[in-house]
Amino acid sequence: MTNHIFIKDRIKSFNTKITVGSDKSISIRSILLASQAVGVSKITNLLESDDVLNTLKTIRKLGVSYKKIKNVYNIEGYGINGFNIKKNTIIDAGNSGTLARLILGLLVKTKYKIKLIGDKSLSKRDFSRVIKPLRLFGANIKSNNNFLPIEIEGTNFLRPIQYSEDIGSAQVKSCIILSALNSPGITCINAKRSRDHTELMLKFLKYPIKIKNSSEFQAISIQGQNQFNAFNYNVPGDISSAAFFIVLTILSTKSKMIIKNVNINPSRIGIITILNKMGAAIKFKNKKIYNGEKIADIYVKSKKNLFSINCPSKLNSSAIDEFLIIFLVAAKAKGVSRFKELGEMNKKESKRLDLGIKFLKLIGIKVDRYKNNINIRGNPDLFLSDNFEMKDFLKDHRIFFLSCITALTLGGKWKINDKDSINSSFPSFLKILKNIGAKIN
Ligand code: S3P
Q: I need a surface site. Which of 250, 258, 339, 352 has the fewest CB within 10 A?
């Protein structure tokens, strides 16, 4: 089967209402926490993407069963440390850094060695950031110089830890929180702020976790070894998927879009702050709170005059997965946009900072780089008519989405490879685009 698409025309004006794929971070967390709850949890609107399906396969390998009945995933947990683990278990996290790092947190007390593997991209990502705290808890870990494959063997002599998490990584923070559930005593984390879905879900489950937020840090304390009951959860839309449709609308002509029921957790909406500062008029309507998470419909329309931004680095963590598409807006804005301290972008599914710059240059935008800071010289008149083939961009789903949105808004004749990368986070992406009039072959 072919694994590429062609886009040869810009999208025509649209005025539409859509729903994007469910939130990946929340989908993965809801499964992992259901695997630790007592009883049958019922999860609806779960994102059925590869990363999430790999999470389901993982808990099944660890002895937790689930059944999909109509659109409800029923997951039967046996409490904290309730996994039923067999000898020589191998877990394949596929492309998912979130699954790989979070599941390690739940394995600090396993009685047998478990091997964790992943795909080519995940095998290039450094795990030292989680290996270090896991060893402090007492887990025995062997790795390939901090890369996969990793072997973890739990211990019965777990101890709570005090840890400073200063990268601002929700994966590291959540890995520690999940280990703390297994450990006796109180674990304390001083974490640079990052998405807080794990904490909010545990609060919603009435788990004894305390959080004190300051402007840049969170002081979190977790009392270990408390059981919690099974729960019901309905997963909202993913702002990281909505981001591509928001930018599609802003850069199209005379178009409007409503994106229904999206998670607008303050730790995730850096892109909205950034784009509104650049002149977009994105609004949230029908706001509500569901199980501790903020949800809203997003209203967005086309915008001709966009301004450059001097982006404060304190927004980096809340927009970390969205910078690629934000760069495209900067490419169309008047003036020089500045982004700082974006080294974390290079630690994702691909080296996204390097590849983002390569992409901007490919479409004729001047970019200056100093270490992990970049200046993008915008060109509001930028339209494309050349032929482009996207092939050396390492199967990163977000680079695939970026290429499609660029083709549909700026023009040119595009062949975009690695179509199946969309399955990792947003399988319905192309279908939604076609429904709103995009011509994709
Ligand atoms: C995620 C956290 C972020 C993000 C990733 C999902 C999560 O990674 O980039 O796509 O669900 O915890 P880091 O925690 O490494 O920044």
A: 258
